[in-house]
Specification:
The protein is mainly alpha-helical. The chain is built from 70 helices and five strands. Helix 1 packs across helix 5, helix 4 runs parallel beside helix 7 and helix 40 runs parallel beside helix 42.
């Protein structure tokens, strides 16, 4: 670089390398964008290197410029600042160029770049008025997937030759952890160094172990091969009969030990395995082998037992659970004594973390439970059985004494996985001798708190309840049912210090506080809201209330979920400077905002600073605004939009298609490589099927596949395209490897039963594990059938020896089958379910009641089995009813009337089902009223909540009897019900008593009412202020009768907001006039609701607020046909886009308007357009 006394730029003698800290270039105004030379990045690194060993002062500025001049680039200080800004921005948006830059650096420059990633000092590179914030550069770089990818690749290529290997491993860790390990693909293993020092190899292996769960199965196999290649070489073992797997090598492998072949495990020396098991950290390692198989686990157990490790010594086994997850496969039960069985049961708690094989774990627990209780009663051993007590049936739990449950409460209150019915029984046993609950009683219950009855909570002393809400046990209050929570609330809100009661309510429980109670006692501040979950109606009220007394916007905007209550008027009222200064609060909590709020933010940003507007916000504006996006902004737009959730940003399918067309245009209709996939982010989930099929290059496909796997709602066309690509990539299913099947994961549902038959035969465990991960979804029936057959084939090999009467020739489901199948239990024939053995039914009823795909015929057979086991419904206890789940839907009206429904908690469990017929719902309602002795006018708030959907079975007279005092605190809950229009109208009349007549309702009242608002009459609906329309809940819009919805004015419909407009049903649309449909389209598109004069997009620089036309200002001009630009009709002002449509429609379809008499009559023009169906 140069030498002499001029303090040259470049490496300084004796300097070990550049020192960097945490993008940013700051400087004075007025600079223009300049380009650094092709070696700009290298020049910047030289500047950083120079700064690391010199005090940067203004008198050195000319030396910097002289250096750049020597590179044939003439710069001034301002233009240098602009060039640096441009360089850094380009590299963030063009990470491939960054990769080229770093590949082209010399050793010292590369060394400096790597140091910048490693060090975290608060130094800045300063030159006159230029400040380069290196820490911000690093922060932005490590948040960019593309930049991370470039840094990862160049680190692998060059770092180990230039830096200390330990530093390179640290850099790789930063980059890989920042990318969730997604850069680790099978080919990368070929680039990993094979000649690392021992310490660097161990550190790099540890990094791969940390990222194990984020690594694909193929990549895991490749990393395993790289690790074992080095370990085998270093072991110097030449005799094939001697294993290279030493104790230390096992420790280095960590979770990768599950990839060892069975034969290799069996060759491990007893001395080495004994040494390994004695390591202090062996237990921690074995606790993480979640994906180990039974075969490999038992091989390890066999080798451990071959050492001097005593598998039956209680103190040895108990030592910190030394066997880890291997204990889940313990099979040496012969002559096992009760003490060892109890210790093993304690260790089995961790087995829920295993990937699959839970049926085997449950079977092992049952066997150990039998041994542990040999010669002892359940009452005597209850506290020492660990979570194996979850395997106890109703009758076994009923046989326990209250004293035994109380003595074992410290164990029982920590068990995770209790069924609801088990919790009811145990809670009743624990509280058997308590007439009134105290804080001490309930504070001991832990997870069993959910078994306490609603009425019992309500009967507690208010001071005890307040103490409960302040205690650690309050964490379990959020697990209570809504009825139980309202039982607590009704007591807390009784006479006394209501404000302090509200303050003590934490987390999700706070969402149950009524708007009325907040309205009545609003004396608290924004600070107490930060840790609470808030529903939107609460937030609207509280934000409005607190904004009257809070002058600093950040106090409210930073108060957690209070942000949900920001309205468009609040946003509009912010000055430009205030809005820009506080936008970060919105940006950092985008998931809390409604589509309407996002739309308001987008309009505000467009008005005050469109040049700096986050590009993704353009998608919230009408489609033509996005069309104006220049090509130079495509990459920032794609990155910005890819980090958001398009489904919550754009709700209308037509508008979404427009956004996606812009995305494709920005991509030049091809996704060339993995860098483009990085940029797309969440947009991958929305790519049209044709793009997935034809425009994703082979190079981009592997990266895209990983992203597509996380998409929750791919269309059938997208799935078909993915399936074809997978077949092209992996070939036919019969040729797939275990790694391929694991990596495909949820994509296995895309293949037919015939295609998956070979997978089910070769890899049944992987198939079943994949199915179990889909809990909460409804996989295709054909996939479930394949899973079913893979399990059933094993069951057929081991049929029951003693079938039930009438079940000869039928292979009845076993408990193991039911656990393995999960949702695939829906494939049992109804007759199979009726042949369930009694013990199997008792142990599995809750699992079967949770299957969502059961038909009514299957449910009826399960109900018949319940009657066989428990006798007639009139004999059923509350926990029997609760355990049924969806099976209860098979009960006819007569059977429902036989149930004991005196407990609101039992009724609440039934009301969780949403498929009741009106007759069944009426039977549940009448059953509760008769069995409990309550009249409708006696019902408390928690009764109303517990009745749930059964409230829809009330008649109008009954609803009128509900006490306003109770109704007003559960309005939001009732507003979630989808009752008939007549019932909603009656609830609306009750709401008027609480909140006044509809013309006086505010935004938070309308939001609180939910579906109740659908009970408005057409006259009431017409009188609502248009500014209230966005505050209907979408569910209320859908519930409005078609003949009522059509009475909304065009202006009201235009003010619905994007979310409510998207909720309008096809039947409602068909009732609308052309003008109403246009208004609806404007709302869907995100046009301004509060002014029909939203300006069209402009390619010119953003105007300052002072240069914007005042609201409502007329826009002069013409259409070239002599018409005024604004066509006037009663109650209608055309926006510019409609007027352009009028012009186009007139010219193409209505030549008669060339008549001079008509062209000056705009009302006639619009009228004729509407008559002839011209849609603008």
């Amino acid at each position: 670089m140069g030498g002499g006394d001029e303090a040259p730029l470049g490496p300084v003698a004796g300097d070990a390398g550049g020192s960097c800290s945490g993008a940013g270039v700051r400087g004075g105004p007025g600079t223009r964008r300049e380009e650094l030379p092709g070696e700009g990045a290298q020049a910047l690194l030289d500047l950083i290197q120079f700064q690391s060993s010199h005090v940067w002062t203004a008198d050195l500025s000319h030396r910097v410029l002289a250096y750049l001049n020597s590179r044939h680039v003439a710069f001034t200080i301002p233009s240098l600042k602009a060039a640096m800004e441009n360089l850094l921005e380009q590299r963030l948006y063009q990470p491939q160029k960054l990769l080229e830059d770093l590949r082209g650096t010399d050793a010292q420059q590369f060394h400096t770049a790597m140091k910048c990633l490693l060090e975290d000092k608060k130094d800045h590179l300063e030159l006159d008025n230029i400040v380069i914030d290196l820490g911000e550069i690093r922060k932005q770089a490590l948040q960019s997937p593309g930049v991370n990818r470039s840094l990862f690749l160049v680190t692998l290529e060059r770092c180990f030759q230039v830096l200390n290997p330990l530093e390179c491993v640290e850099i790789l860790g930063m980059v890989l952890r920042g990318s969730s390990g997604r850069f680790l693909h099978p080919d990368i293993a070929e680039s990993l160094p094979h000649d690392l020092r021992e310490d660097a190899f161990k550190n790099l292996s540890a990094l791969f172990k940390d990222l194990y769960d984020q690594t694909s199965a193929h990549a895991q196999r490749a990393v395993y091969c790289w690790m074992t290649g080095i370990l085998k070489t270093s072991s110097n073992v030449t005799d094939d009969s001697v294993s290279w797997v030493s104790a230390e090598n096992l420790w280095i492998l960590g979770r990768y030990m599950v990839h060892l072949p069975f034969e290799e495990i069996m060759r491990i020396s007893p001395i080495e395995i004994g040494l390994f098991i004695s390591y202090d950290n062996a237990t921690k390692q074995l606790d993480t082998v979640y994906d180990i198989t039974p075969e490999l686990a038992q091989a390890f157990l066999e080798r451990i037992s071959s050492s001097n490790f005593d598998m039956r010594n209680t103190s040895t086994i108990h030592r910190q659970g030394v066997l880890g997850l291997l204990v889940c496969f313990y099979d040496d039960l012969e002559l096992l004594d009760a003490a060892v069985a109890q210790v093993l049961l304690h260790q089995l708690i961790k087995c829920s973390r295993l990937r699959g094989f839970q049926a085997g774990v449950q079977k092992l627990k049952a066997e150990l439970l039998e041994i542990a209780t040999e010669n002892q009663t359940l009452n005597e051993t209850l506290g020492s059985l660990s979570d194996a007590v979850m395997g106890l049936t109703h009758s076994q739990l009923e046989s326990l004494s209250p004293e035994a449950v109380q003595g074992a409460i410290s164990t029982l209150n920590q068990v995770s996985g209790w069924t609801r019915s088990q919790v009811i029984i145990l809670s009743a046993k624990y509280l058997a001798h308590q007439k009134v609950l105290s804080f001490y009683n309930v504070s001991q219950m832990g997870v069993l708190l959910t078994g306490v009855g609603t009425q019992a909570f309500h009967a507690m002393d208010r001071r005890d309840l307040m103490q409960l809400l302040r205690s650690a046990t309050s964490l379990h209050v959020s697990d209570l049912s809504p009825a139980q929570q309202h039982g607590v609330l009704s007591k807390v809100m009784e006479a006394g210090d209501t404000v302090s009661g509200i303050v003590e309510i934490q987390g999700a429980f706070f969402k149950e506080v009524s708007l009325f109670d907040l309205w009545r006692e609003p004396g608290f501040n924004s600070t107490v809201l930060k840790a609470k979950e808030i529903r939107r109606s609460q937030a609207l009220f509280l934000f409005e209330l607190l904004s009257e007394t809070t002058r600093r916007p950040e106090e409210l905007l930073s108060a957690g979920q209070l942000l949900k209550g920001v309205t468009c008027p609040h946003i509009d009222a912010m000055s430009a400077d205030s809005f820009l200064a506080h936008f970060q609060y919105f940006e950092n909590n985008f998931s809390l905002l409604s589509p309407y709020q996002v739309n308001c933010l987008a309009w505000k940003y467009w008005e005050v600073s469109r040049s700096s507007m986050p590009p993704f916000l353009l998608a919230a504006l009408p489609a033509r605004y996005l069309a104006s996006l220049p090509a130079s902004q495509c990459v920032p737009f794609l990155i910005s939009l890819g980090k958001s959730q398009l489904d919550s940003l754009v709700l209308d399918s037509h508008k979404k298609n427009s956004v996606l067309k812009k995305v494709q245009q920005c991509l030049s209709y091809v996704i060339a490589d993995e860098y483009t996939v990085d940029i797309l982010g969440n947009l991958l989930c929305h790519l049209p099927a044709a793009v997935i099929r034809h425009e994703l290059s082979p190079r981009a496909w592997a990266t895209a596949l990983r992203g597509l796997r996380d998409c929750l709602d791919l269309s059938s066309q997208q799935k078909a395209a993915v399936r074809l690509r997978l077949l092209e990539q992996h070939g036919l299913p019969q040729n797939w490897t275990a790694e391929t099947v694991k990596d495909l994961g949820s994509f296995l549902v895309l293949f037919s039963g015939d295609e998956l038959s070979s997978v089910a035969t070769k890899f049944p465990d992987i198939l079943q594990q994949t199915a179990s991960k889909m809990a909460g979804t409804l996989p295709p029936k054909e996939f479930l059938q394949t899973v079913f057959e893979s399990v059933r084939n094993i069951s057929v090999e081991n049929p029951s020896s003693d079938p039930s009467p009438g079940c000869h020739g039928i292979v009845a489901p076993s408990s193991d089958d039911i656990i393995k199948l999960a949702e695939a239990n829906a494939c049992w024939a109804p007759e199979d379910l009726l042949c369930l053995e009694e013990d199997t039914f008792l142990r599995s009823v809750e699992l079967l009641g949770a299957v969502r795909s059961f038909s009514l015929a299957q449910l009826r057979k399960l109900k018949e089995k319940a009657v066989q086991v428990w006798d007639r419904p009139s004999h059923w206890r509350d926990y029997h009813i609760v355990s049924l789940g969806r099976i209860a839907l098979a009960l006819n009206e007569s059977e429902l009337e036989q149930l004991d429904l005196s407990s609101i908690d039992t009724v609440a469990s039934l009301s969780q089902q949403t498929e009741w017929t009106p007759g069944q719902a009426k039977s549940i309602l009448q059953g509760f009223l008769e069995d409990s002795g309550y009249r409708v006018q006696d019902l408390k708030s928690f009764h109303l909540v517990g009745l749930g959907t059964a409230l829809c079975a009330m008649n109008i007279t009954e609803i009128s009897l509900i006490k306003i005092l109770e109704f007003r605190v559960v309005v939001a809950r009732i507003g979630t019900l989808l009752c008939s229009t007549q019932i909603l109208a009656e609830f609306k009349r009750k709401a008027e008593v609480v909140f006044g007549e509809p013309t006086k309702w505010s935004s938070f009242v309308l939001q609180e009412l939910g579906t109740i608002a659908a009970g408005l009459t057409k006259e009431e609906l017409q009188m609502l202020d248009k500014d209230l329309m966005p505050y209907f809940q979408p569910s209320a819009i859908k519930c409005l009768p078609d003949e009522i919805f059509k009475e909304l004015s065009a202006e009201q419909i235009a003010s619905l907001g994007p979310e409510n407009a998207a909720a309008v049903t096809p039947a409602q649309r068909r009732q609308l006039s052309m003008l109403q449909l246009q208004s609806l389209q404007r709302a869907v598109d995100g046009a301004k609701a509060r002014s029909w004069l939203d300006a069209p997009p402009s390619a010119s620089p953003a105007r300052t607020p002072s240069s914007l036309s005042p609201p409502g200002a007329w826009v002069s001009g013409g259409l070239g046909l002599g018409y005024p630009l604004l066509v006037l009709m009663p109650k209608l002002v055309c926006s510019i886009d409609i007027c352009h449509a009028v012009q186009k429609c007139t010219v193409s379809l209505f030549p008669e308007f060339s008549d001079p008499e008509r062209k000056d009559n705009p009302e006639a023009v619009m009228s004729l357009h509407l008559d002839r169906g011209c849609i603008f």
